[in-house]
Amino acid sequence: MTFQVYDTTLRDGAQREGLSYSVVDKLAVARLLDDLGVGFIEGGWPGAVPKDTEFFRRARTELELRHAVLVAFGATRKAGLAVEDDPQVRGLLDARTPAVALVAKADLRHVERALRTTAEENLAMIRDTVAYLVAQGRRVFVDGEHTFDGFRHDPGYTAAVAQAALAAGAERFVLCDTNGGMLPSQVTATIADLVERTGIAPERLGMHAQNDTACAVANTIAAVEAGVRHVQGTANGYGERPGNADIFAIVANLQLKLGMPVLPEGCLAQMVRVSHAIAEIANIAPDTHQAYVGAAAFAHKAGLHASAIKVDPLLYNHVDPAVVGNDMRILVTEMAGRASIELKSRELGLDLAGHPDALSSVTARVKELEAGGWSFEAADASFELLVRSELPDAAPARPFALESYRVLVEHREDGAVVSEATVKIRVRGERVIATAEGNGPVNALDEALRVGLARHYPELREFELADYKVRILEGSHGTGAVTRVLVETAGAGGRDWTTVGVHPNVVEASWHALVDALTYGLDRARVQGGAPA
């Protein structure tokens, strides 16, 4: 059977404490996961979570997936209710995804104590729901919640759950280490016992591991070595409690260590870019020491390591960093990531390979900016502007020149807080002064800038500030800390772009991001004769 890489960042990964995706965020993450080449993207629980329902509705027209199949997640029918009358099951159908994932109780204790129903009714719930959805033309995966703990308690019943799901037409039965308490040897033993008891082919099984023992990736690899051919994980290991198995480490280990080509050709090199971009969208600092994709994953200090690396880099690297889109670094003399910049530029339709001087200049500039806290991983628009500024005949047209801006915040006696901004700019030879109010200093600044540019650039009416994220950079503290701002702008036709700004003053950081946002949007509208793409 075909090996399946199944990502659940947008559902299980979103349960991480402090993480909250907007619908726009979810669409952006789905596109990034598709770039990685995963086979399935679990988008959420339609009908149960309004945001997820909206995501699936928008995905039908706004997501053009090249590699992945979109999956809606839900549960089996409720006890005592006909499957066709269950509104949650109806919500799965209304999502109109080609595939559906169902969570089912695989531990008899949970059936009796949590669901408060009988062992036989739980099996009927599984059979009925799977058969109904298959009859409606859906591919169905069944996640056996608490499979391993359930198998320890009553192996016969857990085995019956797996058999019921597959007999009813499920494509795979996924073994879930829901409490995250297993070790690799226990995973291997459980799979062998289950296969022997039931006669189920191991390739019809899947693995979903939580990371409570810090063994989620190892448990997943152990399951594959035991014959499983469906693996689940989340970007950067996001998830509840300590998290889930990291999808990046899983696929890299399978492909590079076990020789299993589980991703489409060329997709493995997207790992670092996708990992960091998703971290920025989640507003979580990338883990610098994360395997394969962390900035320190292939970093070496001067001395013995550096001497050996001069002879052969693989003497101290377990794989070539470039195959996952990373760079080796000597910490005392950092090596520039030319290959990554060239690859990303090519993706944006810009040829730096034919302009070595520009490539060197962009690489140096990115390195300089990133040392100051800038990050372009989730800010493609700012990165594109930077690259184009170094290319002959491709520099973006700057819509205005700043003379000055001023922002006032007034706290009135009645408790009302009003922000007012004034910008003085030069637009096409004309000096313009514009003032506007907003619900905060950044909103007021954005409004004032739009007022000043509106007569010359009516396209601005199509632009909307869709999201705004602020992060205090690592290593800086207090009210004087350096901040990084990400601004997401929505244009006509549902197109979005993200820009970045960094400065000790949060308003100035926001100004940089706002200027890039308008510059990018107006330039793309000019080039294409319509809405930015």
Description:
With 533 residues, the chain is α/β, with parallel strands linked by helices. The protein has 17 helices and 16 strands. It has helices at residues 23-36, 50-62, 87-94, 108-113, 119-135, 147-153, 155-167, 184-198, 216-225, 247-257, 271-281, 304-311, 338-347, 356-371, 380-388, 441-453, 506-528, and strands spanning 4-7, 40-44, 69-75, 99-105, 139-145, 172-177, 205-209, 230-233, 299-300, 329-330, 401-411, 417-427, 430-438, 464-472, 483-490, 496-503. An eight-stranded parallel β-barrel has the order 1-2-3-4-5-6-7-8, surrounded by eight helices. Strands 11-12-13 form a three-stranded antiparallel sheet, with helices on one face. A three-stranded antiparallel sheet has the order 14-15-16. α1 links the parallel β1 and β2. α6 packs across α7 (155-167) and α15 packs across α17.
Layout of secondary structure:
Elements: E1 4-7, H1 23-36, E2 40-44, H2 50-62, E3 69-75, H3 87-94, E4 99-105, H4 108-113, H5 119-135, E5 139-145, H6 147-153, H7 155-167, E6 172-177, H8 184-198, E7 205-209, H9 216-225, E8 230-233, H10 247-257, H11 271-281, E9 299-300, H12 304-311, E10 329-330, H13 338-347, H14 356-371, H15 380-388, E11 401-411, E12 417-427, E13 430-438, H16 441-453, E14 464-472, E15 483-490, E16 496-503, H17 506-528
Parallel strand pairs: 1-2, 1-8, 2-3, 3-4, 4-5, 5-6, 6-7, 7-8, 9-10
Antiparallel strand pairs: 11-12, 12-13, 14-15, 15-16
Assign the structural class, choosing from mainly alpha, mainly beta, alpha/beta, alpha+beta, or little secondary structure.
alpha/beta
- CA-based shape: globular
- How many β-strand stretches? 16
Helical coverage, percent range: 25-40%
Number of helices: 17
What's the end-to-end separation, in Å? 39 Å
The whole-number mean of residue pLDDT values reads 89
Spatial arrangement of strands, main beta sheet = 1-2-3-4-5-6-7-8
Major beta sheet summary:
8 strands, parallel, barrel
Q: Which blocks of ≥5 consecutive residues have pLDDT under 50?
A: 302-311, 331-336
Radius of gyration: 26 Å
Oligomeric state of shown chains = single chain
Beta-strand share of residues: 15-25%
